[in-house]
Design brief:
This protein has 243 residues and is an alpha/beta fold. Helix 4 packs across helix 5. The structure holds adenosine-5'-diphosphate and magnesium ion. Adenosine-5'-diphosphate binds next to helix 1. Belongs to the ABC transporter superfamily. Keywords: Amino-acid transport, ATP-binding, Cell membrane, Membrane, Nucleotide-binding, Transport.
C-alpha cells in the first residue's frame, strides 16, 4: 500500500497540558479515515498538526516518505497537497466564489489565470455551485459556502483532504448536501481524513475509524467493528451517548 501520511508517536502540549499523546497511524492512498470522539479529545489539534497549523511537540509526520517537520518546508505548497476544509468555511468574504477558488492556484501553484478559472469551474460544477461564481460568500447559505470551500480545496489538486467537522456549523437541512458531496469524493478515490459527529456517514464511507479520547487513540478499526462491536468501554460509552 502506498502511504500518503505516516504519523508516528506524535504528541502535542499547550503549556503543561498534553492534548495529544503518542498518536501513530498511517493514511494510505485512496483511504477514508474518520476521526470520532468527544469534544476536547484532541481531534482538531491532530488535524491541525497534519496541516502544520500547529507544530507537534514530539513525534514525526512523514508526507510521502519525507518528514514535514524540517525547517525548510514550504508551508503553502505543503498545504495545497494536504488541504483542509474547516467547520467555519474560512472563505475570503471580500472575494466572489470564482476568485475564492482561483487565488490559491495562482499564488501558490503559479497557475495561469485562465487555467485556474477553468479548473475552479470544473470543481464548482462537481459540488453543484457553478451557478454561483459571481456571488459573495455572504449571499450563500452555510451548505453552499461549505461546498465552495470544498471546491477551492479541490482546485489545488490535493493528495489528501482533511475535514474538520465540515457539517457542524450547518443548519440541519444543509448537512445532507455537504455529506453527499463528500461521499462522491470518497467514491472517486480521494484520500480523506474526516473529523465528524455524523456516525451514519462514518459507518458508510470510512475505511477506517479512529476513536479518540483524552488525547489518545482509544480504539480504531473497521467501521463495522467500531460501531457494531466496540471493544473498549469508553468507545461504548461514547457511542451510546451519540447514537
Ligand atoms: P476536539 O477537536 O476533539 O474538540 P481540540 O483539539 O479542539 O479537541 O482540543 C483538545 C484540547 O486542547 C482541549 O482541551 C482544548 O481546550 C485544548 N486546546 C486546543 N487548542 C488550544 C490552544 N491553542 N491553546 C491551548 N489549549 C488548546
Ligand atoms: Mg474540534
Amino acid at each position: 500500500m502506498s502511504e500518503v501520511l505516516e504519523i508516528r508517536n506524535l504528541s502535542k502540549k499547550f503549556g503543561e497540558r498534553e492534548v495529544l499523546k503518542d498518536i501513530s497511524f498511517n493514511v494510505s492512498k485512496g483511504q477514508v479515515i474518520c476521526l470520532i470522539g468527544s469534544s476536547g479529545s484532541g481531534k482538531s489539534t491532530l488535524l491541525r498538526c497534519l496541516n502544520l497549523l500547529e507544530k507537534p511537540t514530539t513525534g514525526e509526520i512523514d508526507y510521502r516518505g519525507t518528514s514535514i517537520l524540517n525547517p525548510g518546508m514550504n508551508l503553502f505548497q505543503y498545504r495545497s497537497k494536504v488541504g483542509m476544509v474547516f467547520q467555519q468555511f474560512n472563505l475570503f468574504n471580500n472575494l466572489d466564489v470564482l476568485t475564492n477558488c482561483t487565488t490559491g492556484q495562482m499564488n501558490v501553484m503559479k497557475t495561469e489565470k485562465e487555467e485556474a478559472k477553468q479548473r475552479a469551474l470544473s470543481f464548482l460544477e462537481e459540488v453543484g455551485m457553478a451557478a454561483y461564481i459571481h456571488a459573495r460568500p455572504s449571499q450563500l447559505s452555510g451548505g453552499q459556502k461549505q461546498r465552495v470551500a470544498i471546491a477551492r480545496a479541490l482546485a489545488m489538486e490535493p493528495d489528501v483532504l482533511l475535514f474538520d467537522e465540515p457539517t457542524s456549523a450547518l443548519d440541519p437541512e444543509m448537512v445532507g448536501e455537504v455529506l453527499r458531496v463528500m461521499k462522491q469524493l470518497a467514491d472517486s478515490g480521494l484520500t480523506m481524513v474526516v473529523v465528524t459527529h455524523e456516525m451514519q456517514f462514518a459507518r458508510e464511507v470510512a475505511d477506517h475509524v479512529i476513536f479518540m479520547d483524552q488525547g489518545v487513540i482509544a480504539e480504531e478499526g473497521a467501521p463495522e467493528q467500531i460501531f457494531n462491536n466496540p471493544k473498549e468501554d469508553r468507545t461504548k460509552v461514547f457511542l451510546s451517548r451519540i447514537l
